[in-house]
Structures are given as structure tokens and as C-alpha cells.
Amino acid sequence: MAINFSPAYVSAQEGSVEKAEKEIAKKRKKQAKATKKAQKEAKKAFWKLQSKEAKKRIKKSNKKQKKAARRAKKQGEYKWEEQEHTHE
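-> C-alpha cells emitted (88 positions)
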């Protein structure tokens, strides 16, 4: 038994699929925005609880960690003698 679909019916189906995909994308975007907002509020609340000395210590520690990571990355790129050689 062969079923003939008219082009109008097929295009209507495609349109509904596209519409559904757009709705899913909108929901994901909305969820991501809500998650980001909640994280921002949590971060703000965390910093509000900290003393001035603790804030300074945390910021200083983060700065040191970033600097150490940059140095390690830079050294990793140029220290060829310390890299493992797999072609031997």
C-alpha cells in the first residue's frame, strides 16, 4: 500500500519540526540564563560573608595560581629535553 503525501503536508511537518527545535533551543537558553544568574547570586553572597582580610588573601592566592599556571604552560612549550620522545 503506497501513501502519497502532498508537498503541502510534508512542508507543514518540516515546519513543525523546526518550530519544536526553536522551542527547545529557547528553553535551553532560558535555563542557562537562570543557572548563570543563580551562580552570580551565590558568588555575591559568598563574598559578602567574607572578611576584608579573607577577600584579600583569596584574591592574592588566585593571582598566584594564575601566574604559576602561565609559567608552567610557557615552560612546557619550550623545554623539549624534558618531553617524552615516542619516536625512539
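Helices lie at 7-49, 52-78.
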